[in-house]
Design goal:
InterPro entries: Cyt_c_oxidase_su8 (IPR003205), Cyt_c_oxidase_su8_sf (IPR036548)
Keywords: Membrane, Mitochondrion, Mitochondrion inner membrane, Transit peptide, Transmembrane, Transmembrane helix
Distance between the termini: 49 Å
Helix content: 55-70%
Pfam families: COX8
Order of helices and strands: HHH
Structural class: mainly alpha
Number of helices: 3
Organism: Salvelinus namaycush (Lake trout)
Strand content: under 5%
Shape: flat
Pathway: Energy metabolism; oxidative phosphorylation
Largest sheet: none
């Protein structure tokens, strides 16, 4: 029974150490507004970064199936 209590105490310590305080948020407007061109470049970079690798894997799915 003391083994269970010890493991419960270890779990409590682990959970307590991972509690993080809330971040302070500011409600001020942006200091620098992005132009439409800058927004388009940022969105394109995000789409390529996220969808590029998954598209490559899906395009080569048959190669992965026959490789093993």
């Amino acid at each position: 029974m003391s083994g269970i209590r010890g493991s419960v105490n270890l779990l409590r310590v682990a959970v307590r150490s991972q509690i993080v305080s809330k971040a302070t948020l500011s409600h001020k407007p942006a200091k620098h507004h992005l132009s439409v061109g800058e927004q388009a470049i940022a969105m394109t970079a995000f789409f390529i970064t996220i969808l590029g690798p998954s598209g490559y894997v899906l395009a080569h799915m048959e190669n992965y199936k026959h490789h093993s």
